[in-house]
Amino acid sequence: MASAYLSRSVSSSGSNTTATFSAWVKRAKTSGSDYPRLMSAYQDSGNYTRILFRNSDELEAYTYYQGNTNRLVLRTNRLFRDTNAWYHIVVRFDTTQSTADDRCRIYVNGVQETSFSSRTNPAQGANLKMNNSGNTYNLGRDGGGGSTFDGQMAHVHWCDGQSYAPTTFGETDSNGVWIPKTAPSVTYGTNGFFMKFDNDSNMGLDSSGNGNNLTTTGTIIQNKDTPTNNHPIINKLDFRTDDFVVTNAGLTGQTSNSVFSPGMVGIGVDSGKWYWEVKVGAKTGSSDWHLIGVTSSYTIGSDEALGYNAYDYAYYGHTGQKRNNDNTTQSYGATYGVGDIIGVALDIDNLKIYFHKNGTYQDSGDPTSGSTGTGAAFTIANPSVTGRNFYFPAVCYFDSSTNATYHFNFGSGYFGTTKITSAGSNGNGSLFEYDVPTGYYAINTENIKDQS
Q1: Contact between residue 373 and residue 352 where contact means Cβ atoms under 8 Å apart
Q2: Measuring CA to CA, which residue among 249, 246, 248, 244 is closest to residue 230?
Q3: How many CB atoms lie within 10 A of CB 364?
Q4: pLDDT along the chain (452 residues), means of 10
Q5: CA 411, CA 277: separation in Å to the nearest integer?
Q6: Which of 305, 307, 377, 299 is nearest to 342 (CA)?
Q7: Which residues contact 372 (CB under 8 A, 6 or more apart)?
Q8: pTM for the full predicted model
C-alpha cells in the first residue's frame, strides 16, 4: 500500500466491547522509525484502538483511553520479519469475557500467540472505543497520521459485535498450508466491512453487504500476489539488499548512494523457464550504470556489483555489454537507460539467459531455441553448483556516490504505480508489457509448483 491507505467515518455506534479483525498481510519491509499500522479505530489523540507492527517487528493490539491509561496492550515476543510471506492475522476483542486473557486474543496463521513482551488486559466490560460514532477507521495508517503500511493486504474483515476464531476465515489445505476461506459465513454488524480488493476501479468497495465503503487516499494497486499464489518482492532481509529503499509493496527499489552491491528478490528458481520485466526509473548519476540480471552468488563486499561474481549474469546499460565473473565484460547489445524496459528470459532447463530491450531481444536472441541457445547472453552454471542453488532476479547501479530506481514486474501488470501500456501475449494470467516467450512463465508459487 506504500503511501496509500483507506478510511471511513463512523456515523452510528456499534459494539465497543466486541469485534474481530482478520486480514492477510505481506510486509514489504521491516523495522523503521514509526509503527506501520494495519488498522486503527480513531476518535481523537486520547481515544483509539489500533493494530500494528512495532518498529522492532513485534505485532501489537493497543487501546489508549483518556487520562494516559492503556486499557489494552498485547505485544508479542515473536518478531514478524519475513517479507516474502503472507501472514494471516486475527485479533479478537471481547471485554465481556470473565477470563482476563480472553478479552483480547491474537492469532497468526491459525495459531494463537501466547508469548508477550507486554500485556495489559482490559477490565471486564471495558469500552474500547472501537465502533463509536465519530470514529474514523483506517486501513494501512493511524487516524492521527504517521507511517503508512508498506505492503499488501487481502481478505480484510472487520466484524462489529462478533468475536470469531481464525478457523472462521482460514483453513488448512491438503498440503498442510493455511489458506483463506474466500467467502466465510460471518455477521458484520453495524460498522463491519469486507475488503476483497477485487474491483481495481474501486479498491474501497465493501463486499460485506453493509455498504460501508472506504475511501482511498493515494494509489492502491490490485496485485496478482495473493495468499495462495505468492509472488517475489525485493528481499530486504538479504544483507546486500538492506541498503535499498523499498517502496510500492516491495516491487520498487532505489539503490544506495554508498554501496553498489546488487539487490535481489526473495523467491529463487532452480529449474524451468521464467520471464520477468524491469523498468529503469529515475537516476541521480550522469551515466546509465544499470545492471539487470540474476545472481546465485554470495556477495561479500559493498563494491561487488552484479556481474562481479562467477554466478552473476547481467546486462549493462552504460555500454550494452554483458558482465559475468570478476567484472569481465563482453560485447552484447544496445545501451539502455531511464524509461527502458528490460525483459529477462531465464531458461534453467537449458542453462541459458536472454535479455530484451523494449521487446527486442539483444544479439538476435531466441529464448525458444532450447539447447541451441541462439543469441543467448550467457550459458549459465547449473544452480546445483552455485552454493545458493537457486537463481534470483537482481538489479544494481554501478556507482557508490549516486543512485537509481528500478521497478520489477513479475506479472502484476504495473511498474511502480503505473500500469503497463498494453499486455503482451502468453501471460497465462500474468500481465507483462511484452510477449512472454512460449514455454516461459511468471515466477510465482503456483507456477513453481507446476514446473517442479
Answers
A1: yes
A2: 249
A3: 9
A4: 83 95 93 80 88 94 76 95 95 98 98 97 91 93 81 96 98 94 96 94 95 93 91 85 85 88 92 98 93 88 85 96 85 97 98 98 98 98 95 93 95 94 94 98 94 72
A5: 8
A6: 377
A7: none
A8: 0.93
